Amino acid sequence: MMKCTEATQLLSEKMDRSLSSKEKINLGVHTAMCPACRQFGKQMLSLRKISQQYVNHKEGNN
C-alpha cells in the first residue's frame, strides 16, 4: 500500500501534471482509506484556487 508521504507527493504533482493510470488508482485507493491525505488533497485544491484568484485580482488592478 502507498505511504502517506508518497500520496501527498502525488497530490502535489497532480496539480502540475497528469498522473499515470497506475498512480491514479493507487492514489485513489489510498485517499479512500486515509482521511488525512484526503484532507490534504482538498487543501491543495483550495490553495491553488485562492492563489489563482489572487493573481487574477492583481492582474486586474494593473
UniProtKB/TrEMBL annotation:
Any idea where the Putative zinc-finger domain is? 4-38
User: What is the name of this protein?
Assistant: Zf-HC2 domain-containing protein
